[in-house]
Amino acid sequence: MWQRLPVGARGVVRATLPEGAPKRFTDVIGVVVAVEFWGLRVRRDAYGYDDDGGVINIASETIVAAKEIPSRPAAVTARRI
Predict the structure, then answer these.
(1) Which of 78, 77, 66, 16 shows the shortest CA–CA distance to 40?
(2) Are 80 and 18 in contact (CB under 8 A)?
(3) Which residue in 81, 26, 31 sits closest to 59, CA to CA?
(4) 3-state class of 10 per DSSP?
(5) In the prediction, which pLDDT does 45 show?
(6) Which residues contact 49 (CB under 8 A, 6 or more apart)?
């Protein structure tokens, strides 16, 4: 259940898109900023040049599934031998 996602955890949320959208669902991966009665606020891992800082609201009626996922792996740099 999406209500059990802890604030500060990294998670993935599957949500329905509005009717007429080119696809039926979308997945949002990021850090949970807030869990509210109306839904979730998530700071996306990757985002474009928008004014919201990557934080989006996902309404409870659109949430199909949600789960906590592990943190991103540390960046690996190539070493020359």
Answers:
(1) 66
(2) no
(3) 26
(4) strand
(5) 80
(6) none
What domains can you pick out in the chain, each with its CATH number? 2-68 (2.30.30)
Q: How many CA atoms lie within 13 A of 78 on its CB side?
A: 1
From residue 25, give the alpha-carbon distance in Å to each of 14, 42, 56, 70, 76. 7, 17, 16, 22, 32
Check residues 37 and 72 and name the one with the higher pLDDT.
37
The three-class DSSP label of residue 75 is: coil
Q: What is the pLDDT of residues 17-67, one digit of tens each?
A: 999 999 999 999 999 999 999 999 999 887 655 556 689 999 999 999 999
